[in-house]
Amino acid sequence: MSADSPSHPSPPSHVLLAPDRFPGALTAARAARHLAAGLRRARPDVALVELPVADGGDGTVEAAVTAGWRRVEVEVCGPTGRPVTARLALNGTSAVVELAEASGLRRLPGGRPRPLTASSVGTGQLLAHAVRLGARRIVLGLGGGACTDGGAGLVQGLGGRLLDALGKDLPPGGAALRSLHALDLRGLPDMSGIEVVVAADSAGPLLGRTGAAAVDGPRRGANRDEVRLLDAGLRRWADLAEAAARRAARDLPGAGTAGGVGFAALTFLGATIEPGPALMLDLLGFAEKARGARLVVTGEGVLDTRSLRGSAPVHVARAAARAGAPVVAVAGRRGLTGEQLRKARIQAAYALADIEPDDERRVRRAGPLLEQLTVAIADEWLPRGAP
């Protein structure tokens, strides 16, 4: 557990509820609340500890706040320039900043993609605010972003200026980067002595067929021609950014993360990149809270072979195994065999689809269905009268 993590000793023989989010249905915190509600009805004598988890995407700040960190709200620019109220989490000199809070897909007005103009400027503003609050270690979650701007907006949000050939500020978004002529970095805060750790899966490089535009552009609504346009803008951005920072980062693993925001973090913040789930479990003090647990319940929207590549529930199961606690999982849909579950250190899995096969109703009633699943969990794993 990191030195700044809050310390909340768990009661003996408790059940630890540590789900990730169910995308489109439940945040991790709401999933934990529904699990708790069901188990309190089924086993009112069992102590429960709620610890929603995250992987660096949507819900990362919320997970830190639920674990005891202080929530700080600040008005910043959303991905289209409209003001939004975004949150960061603070604990002593540590902060958690989340790209999705300021520059996420859920911040797009009407949910309409803006692949060419969406910007990460609000995330830079959140980082600047964390620095002003005295943060010396910042965990930057890079999931759920709406932009493919290479983190150029992040640099602008921190106080840098991106100028065209006439000395005018560039408009936001990745497409405008083709006209980038110069950078003015005099407004950037002093980041010396501040550790920035990116919580994200290590992705590809910034440019090319496996780069930010090619991979993330279509996810953000870009067509084939727009992907080429974005890649050209990112190439221009990389040339000038690396020259200004005197650091080559475009080909590093993770530079292409979150539409290239990883590149800006590596280049201008000297960031390191760590797997999001493992980093967040450490940050939330999971090992301490799992110690002495009689059961850990984790989960996510879909538990399948992709989960085995490192989803939050699989990291939860491994960490719980180290603490000597058995693990069961809940999911909207389950696609793993019993052998695959055992190898992932998960003793059993329960799916909402088993009691509600209709996709639309399952999403709409995910909370009550989770509570219904806890009856089976209690019967099989928490026998009445057991210590």
Automatic annotation (TrEMBL):
Nucleotidyltransferase found in the keyword field: no
Pfam families named in the record: Gly_kinase
Keywords from the named record: Kinase, Transferase
UniProt xrefs under InterPro entries: Glyc_kinase_flavodox-like_fold, Glycerate_kinase, Glycerate_kinase_RE-like, Glycerate_kinase_sf
Top-level taxon of the source organism: Bacteria
Protein family membership: Belongs to the glycerate kinase type-1 family.
Protein name per Swiss-Prot or TrEMBL: Glycerate kinase
Organism: Actinomadura coerulea
